[in-house]
Write a structure and sequence with these properties.
The protein is mainly beta. It is about 10% helix and about 35% strand. It has a 5-stranded antiparallel sheet.
């Protein structure tokens, strides 16, 4: 999906975490709590970790890049991930 279409679906990008936990930011590492389907239709199993490359609607959804066990990009519901480690700087 194109970023423009994701923004339309989930609303504008905003900072913060609606659940009140530590905010997940771009380049943070996250772990899947349930399996998801990548943008290329590959299944990414629960427990996989990936890097956040986009945030939509204050964390209602994230664009996450996975490299193992499959190499794919997936749009993930914010309730389906948990923070593993802050990334970047």
């Amino acid at each position: 999906m194109a970023k423009r279409r994701l923004s339309e679906r989930f609303g504008p990008e905003r900072d913060g975490d609606p659940a009140g936990g530590p905010p997940i930011r771009e380049l943070d590492r996250v772990r899947l709590l349930s399996a998801v389907t990548g943008d290329d239709a590959q299944c990414v199993p629960a427990g996989s970790t990936g890097t956040v490359v986009g945030i939509y609607a204050a964390g209602e959804a994230f664009e996450v890049e996975f490299t193992r066990p499959v190499d794919t990009l997936a749009t993930v519901d914010g309730r389906a991930v948990t923070l593993v480690a802050h990334g970047g700087a």
